[in-house]
Write a structure and sequence with these properties.
By secondary structure, the protein is mainly α. Helix content is 70%, strand content 4%.
Length: 244
């Protein structure tokens, strides 16, 4: 497919995907490629690429004589980072944030513990300056740079913990960390507890102290859950997270 077709199909797929997420395009209802072509004024090639992307994400299925049929949530590829991003930018973002936070609470403390056991000395040494950059950018209120360092910090931990399934979750964590900033769910400055927590994780992993690494990561994620709860109470946007 040409670059031009790619540029055309991506925003269309996103708009239709969000309609499925919002149930504007109700489960079980069908739309044809011709309808997509007429609605957006695009070629059949672009309409097909839209359908392929939505099918790959489990949002629709293609059926003879019917066209594209919207699917219920149970059929969605829930771990697809793009689907997660779309849900974060929909009216269902509270549910997505809660689910992702619970997933992180289940995975990341164990990943930090395992990284303290299995990560190479090179990886362990990289965490220390990343934690320092998180403190510098966080205290300066530079949320964009803070987000970039935060993504790299958590990616490095997940990918160096020795568990390939945990490593595969790093794109999801990146999406939610980016979403926190884009959606205004970060405080103007990260809480001191969060900055302290990242330094504590980095130091524990560097020392090869699994128990301390797990405990420090648990504190970071408890702070994340608290931040979302506080944001919801202020703005009515994110309900109190359920216990993990």
């Amino acid at each position: 497919m040409s670059t031009g077709a790619q540029l055309l199909h991506q925003p269309i797929a996103r708009e239709l995907g969000v309609e499925v997420i919002e149930r504007v395009w109700a489960p079980g209802s069908a739309r044809t490629l011709e309808e997509l072509q007429n609605r957006y004024g695009v070629s059949r090639t672009v309409a097909r690429e839209v359908s392929r992307q939505l099918e790959a994400m489990g949002l629709v299925s293609s059926r003879r004589r019917l066209g594209l049929v919207a699917q219920p949530m149970a059929a969605w590829s829930a771990l697809d980072p793009l689907l997660i991003d779309w849900r974060l930018h929909s009216s269902h973002r509270e549910d997505q944030i809660r689910s992702l936070t619970q997933l992180r609470l289940a995975v990341e403390p164990a990943a930090a513990e395992s990284a303290a056991r299995h990560a190479s000395i090179h990886t362990r040494a990289r965490l220390l300056p990343l934690a320092a950059e998180l403190r510098r950018t966080g205290e300066a209120g530079d949320l964009q740079d803070f987000m970039a360092f935060d993504i790299e910090f958590h990616r490095l931990l997940l990918e160096s913990c020795g568990n390939e399934l945990f490593a595969a979750l790093s794109p999801l964590v990146a999406v939610v960390l980016q979403g926190r900033t884009e959606l205004g769910l970060m405080p103007p400055q990260p809480k001191p507890e969060a900055l302290d927590g990242h330094e504590a994780v980095a130091e524990a992993v560097f020392r090869g102290d699994p128990e301390a690494a797990r405990a420090a990561m648990q504190r970071i994620l408890d702070e994340v859950r608290s931040t979302f709860t506080d944001a919801g109470e202020r703005a009515g946007a994110v309900p109190t997270a359920r216990p993990a």
